[in-house]
From TrEMBL, chain A:
It is found in: Cell membrane. This is ABC transporter permease. The chain crosses the membrane at residues 9-30, 101-124, 136-160, 190-210, 251-274, 294-320. It is a multi-pass membrane protein.
From TrEMBL, chain B:
SUPFAM superfamilies: P-loop containing nucleoside triphosphate hydrolases. GO terms for cellular component: plasma membrane. Its main location: membrane. Gene3D superfamilies: P-loop containing nucleotide triphosphate hydrolases. This is ABC transporter ATP-binding protein. It comes from Lichenibacterium minor. The lineage of its organism: Bacteria, Pseudomonadati, Pseudomonadota, Alphaproteobacteria, Hyphomicrobiales.
Length: 332, 632
């Protein structure tokens, strides 16, 4: 197992290297770059183009050097923890992303917890009461959640809260707290704004989670070992949680790999509609304006989290399921 | 009340399953009793309702099952004056839960799926104690270890922390027994407890059940379709057919004077070693195979080279890597599955391959089909005109070779796709290899259906609407579609009832004769192999320990392992009980229990094949002479 762990961690290095090369290639293969766009935009607006400044910036960010050199410069920075400089904001990427990362993580974690809290009880109920009215009703509700697009739901919420309560539910806090330091008032303001995006982003996740919990549990419920457990005299609840539920968790753990990246990137469209101060809109804006260091560093962060997430879920699976741990490497 | 009180009395029990618009009755007024300390066998084929009866007793009926009438009286010897009617207890209520696992234990057919794969054996056995007898952690652990020792684990402390998949089938079933018996129940319900086990392991488990019964004084309700097991275990026998009891009485009454035609037919359908050459099994229902339908399937025999073996295997070897150990520390061991195996399969013969599970039977068949690649050795196939080196085939040549060797699998349920109609299933190989026009393919599928005795009108149905025997016949039809030369039958009847088994065996025999097929017939059931095979090879630890023509092997087995295998077969005959003393000595496949001339003492090269004449070859030390081997 130790050898397996070391090998898996070592494999991460080339994986991330290849990913970074791909990201960089895609972004620098666009026919224009940020500076061309800037010049065009300024000319279009009739402003005078300060060519000397543009050249200075190009030189500063290595745009006069070949792409390969620029790539290693960028990657070298990443390794040292320097994420580069955002042209658009004229700030280091680290500062641009700064606060938003924490808000995003808060929002995403709350959403994930919300999803689990709602989906697990409903999924378990649906599986144990298969084909009952309750099962049909809850499954239909889950399907609706799955089928309605996030941003549409966000628009509907916006409209009705304004129409009925005269409330503006946009943002993650009252505008007056935007740049203020953390205080009790800011904290409560965040909490009172948080629940609406959580519900909106969470519905689809809940819908699909209900379906997977139900399907996985149903499959396990018909296994012979459940009958064995009942024949020992265990109560139905203890049978359910010790055996089939435990087994159905495997799918859930293997899902951790995709949860980690979504923690910092979940719900971009909703964030735009509700003007949330999360990282999602930032990434989209950066991609549009070819702010390549901001976008590139951000994408690298997502890939790193994905790779770590997959590793975490694999190790957790091996830890929880002795079959994976002991039978894994056997050649069939 | 008589001297032995009845632990269980079932009176006029009727059980049904809720269906749309009413209930389908599957148990129709069944009455029997299980006296204290005795074994009662419930005999019947699948679908007869015998499992439903046991589920009713334990309160484990499926959700849509309901008791329509009758009583199930359970009398605990601890409280002899207060019988409980199990049929009236609330489903999964506290009363029935207090009895389950504590006063009534149950073991099931498939020990792998009956145990949770992610909990240790110790954890699962201890659970019973936690539920029914709250004592300290240490005393519970000690008791579990004691029980593990009682059921025959050599190192109980180590077994406590092991997972089910780390144990062999026999040990898993022992762990199941330990779990059912840890609270010393008054009644043990054993639902086909040895059907999934090898003969030698079966004999050991049966022996163990009898010993424990004597020691713990419990009653056993044994559910089985194997009359050999019944003859060796049961005091009383109840025969169930379509949810009704056709016959009941003491074992000696029933075996010596079977009254009902159903029981008589069952006894006749069983292959036995006493059959005369050429004698046919009498199937309860004839397969209705239309042998005339085979005529268009016959192909012209290949010209010349008829004497050359169809398939020769030389020095085949295959090893696997397995892992064991804890979370952070693991060991890798190499296990040799097939070790230096050489034999020929002659054209038109049926070669039986016998051995316990894990001895390499299935690996060997996969190597022959090129489903796996061996470490070394050769497989040569003779198609009548030339020799083909199977292991060197690539691309189109391999593709052309594939149809020549086909396979019939053990489990007729999982080897047919539930999402395809029978038509598509049988047609698929024809389509893969682009045989004929669509119209010709359809005609051929029709002919194949008739050949295995199934109605052409069933072609549009899905596998779930067929019984086990019918499904196995569909498998056979699919196999025949490609006109193979060699068919590998991997335990084709071990998942079937006795009555259906005879039907499928007869069909295989007829097809072989009519179509000139060659079989490699893999089985752990010696009686079945005896019925169908011309020559038999015995495999142990990946090596062929003995190979001989059928009559020679059965009349004059030489190798210790072959002899042990034959002793372990339970006969449906009260006068030939299992010789349990000979089996109880330990695992028959363990070379330490073999006679010294067959042991390799850690050096595989020290034993070699010795020809005893008439095609009888045994693996032994070369220093031992032929004469001595034959005399032993």
């Amino acid at each position: 197992m130790l050898r397996y762990l070391v090998r898996r961690v070592l494999i991460m290095v080339p994986t991330l290297f290849v990913t970074s090369a791909l990201i960089f290639t895609v972004m620098s293969s666009a026919p224009t770059n940020y500076f061309d766009n800037l010049v065009q935009e300024m000319q279009a607006q009739g402003e005078k183009v300060d060519q000397a400044r543009i050249d200075f910036m190009k030189h500063e960010y290595g745009f006069d050097k070949p792409p390969v050199e620029r790539y290693f410069w960028w990657v070298g920075g990443l390794v040292r923890g320097d994420f580069g400089y955002s042209f658009e904001y004229q700030l280091p990427v680290r500062q641009v992303v700064g606060d938003r990362v924490w808000l995003t993580i808060l929002l995403s974690f709350t959403t994930i917890v919300f999803t689990w809290l709602v989906a697990f009880p409903i999924g378990i109920y649906s599986a144990t009461h298969q084909y009952s009215w309750g099962d049909y009703g809850l499954t239909t509700l889950g399907l609706m959640g799955l089928a309605i697009p996030h941003f549409l739901l966000a628009l509907i919420f916006l409209y009705f809260s304004n129409q009925w309560f005269g409330l503006s539910i946009g943002g993650l806090m009252d505008p007056k707290y935007f740049d203020a330091p953390m205080s009790w008032g800011k904290f409560t303001s965040i909490l009172s704004h948080l629940w609406i995006p959580v519900i909106i982003i969470g519905t689809a996740g809940t819908g699909s989670m209900i379906r997977s919990v139900r399907a996985n549990l149903l499959e396990e419920l018909h296994k012979q070992y459940v009958v064995t457990a009942r024949s020992k005299g265990l109560s139905p609840w203890r049978v359910l949680f010790k055996y089939p539920f435990r087994m159905s968790l495997n799918f859930f753990i293997s899902d951790i790999g995709s949860i980690l990246p979504s923690v910092i990137s979940g719900g971009e469209l909703v964030a735009i509609v509700l003007s949330l101060q999360t990282t999602g809109p930032l990434l989209i804006r950066a991609l549009q304006s070819q702010d390549i260091y901001l976008a590139g560093s951000f994408l690298m962060l997502l890939s790193t989290l994905t790779v770590i997430g997959v590793l975490v879920s694999d190790v957790a699976l091996a830890f929880l399921d002795p079959r994976i741990r002991l039978l894994g490497g056997a050649t069939k | 009340m008589s001297a032995t009180p009845d632990i269980l009395r079932v009176e006029d029990l009727r059980v049904g399953f809720a269906m749309q618009g009413g209930a389908a009755e599957v148990v129709k007024g069944v009455s029997f009793r299980v006296p204290a300390g005795k074994t009662v066998a419930l005999v019947g084929e699948s679908g007869s309702g015998k499992t439903v009866i046991s589920q009713t007793v334990m309160g484990l009926l499926p959700r849509n099952g309901l008791v329509l009438g009758g009583r199930v009286l359970f009398t605990d010897p601890k409280t002899p004056d207060a019988p409980v009617d199990l049929a009236t207890l609330v489903r999964d209520g506290p009363e029935i839960r207090a009895l389950r696992g504590s006063r009534m234990g149950m073991i099931f057919q498939e020990p792998m799926s009956s145990l949770s794969p992610v909990h240790t054996i110790g954890n699962q056995i201890r659970e019973n104690l936690i539920l029914h007898r709250q004592t300290s952690r240490e005393s519970m652990r000690d008791e579990v270890r004691h029980m593990l020792k009682l059921v025959g684990f050599k190192d109980p402390a180590r077994a406590y922390g092991m997972y089910p998949f780390e144990l062999s089938g026999g040990l898993r079933q022992r762990a199941m027994l330990a779990m059912a018996l840890i609270c010393r129940p008054a009644l043990l319900i054993a639902d086909e407890p040895t059907t999934a086990l090898d003969v030698t392991i079966q004999a050991q488990v049966l022996n163990l059940m009898r010993d424990l019964q004597a020691e713990l004084g419990m009653a056993i309700l044994l559910i089985t379709h194997d009359l050999g097991v019944v003859a060796n275990m049961a005091d009383e026998v109840v025969v169930v057919y379509h949810g009704e009891i056709t016959e009941a009485g003491t074992a000696s009454d029933l075996f010596r004077r079977p009254g009902h035609p159903y029981l008589k037919a069952l006894l006749k359908a069983l292959p036995s070693f006493d059959m005369k050459p050429g004698e046919r099994l009498v199937a309860l229902r004839d397969s209705g195979a239309d042998l005339h339908a085979l005529v268009p399937l016959r192909k012209a025999g290949p010209a010349g080279a008829q004497d050359a073996p169809l398939l020769s295997i030389r020095n085949l070897r295959k090893s696997f890597t397995i892992k064991s150990g804890g979370f952070l520390t693991s060991r890798r061991d190499s296990v040799v599955a097939v070790d230096d195996v050489s034999f020929d399969i002659r054209r038109g013969e049926c070669l039986g391959l016998v051995g316990e599970s894990g001895c390499g039977k299935t690996s060997l068949s996969k190597l022959m089909m090129r489903a796996m690649t061996p470490d070394r050795g050769s497989v040569t196939f003779n198609d009548g005109t030339r020799e083909i080196d199977v292991l060197k085939l690539k691309g189109a040549a391999l593709r052309d070779f594939r149809p020549r060797v086909q396979m019939i699998f053990q489990d007729p349920v999982s080897s047919l796709s539930p999402r395809m109609t029978v038509m598509n299933i049988i047609r698929e190989p024809l389509e893969i290899h682009g045989v004929g026009t669509p119209k010709e393919r359809t005609e051929r599928v029709g002919a194949l259906m008739a050949a295995v005795g199934l109605d052409r009108r069933f072609l549009n149905r899905y596998p779930h609407s067929f019984s086990g025997g019918q499904r196995q016949r569909i498998s056979i039809a699919r196999t025949l579609a490609m006109n193979p030369d060699l068919i590998i039958c991997d335990e084709p009847v071990s998942a079937l009832d006795v009555s259906v088994q005879a039907q499928v065996l007869n069909l295989l025999k007829d097809l072989k004769r009519e179509l000139g097929l060659t079989y490699l017939f893999i089985s752990h059931n010696l009686a079945v192999v005896d019925y169908i095979a011309d020559r038999i090879a015995v495999l142990a630890h990946g090596r062929i320990v003995e190979i001989a023509p059928r009559h020679l092997l059965f009349s004059r087995p030489v190798h210790s392992y072959t002899q042990a295998l034959m002793r372990a077969v339970p006969y449906p005959d009260l006068d030939r009980p299992l010789d349990l003393r000979l089996i109880a000595g330990g695992s028959a496949s363990d070379p330490a229990n073999w006679a010294p001339e067959f042991r390799d003492e850690g050096d595989p090269a020290s034993v070699g094949p010795i020809d005893l004449g008439d095609g009888h070859v045994v693996l032994a030390r070369p220093s031992v002479g032929r004469r001595e081997l034959l005399a032993s």
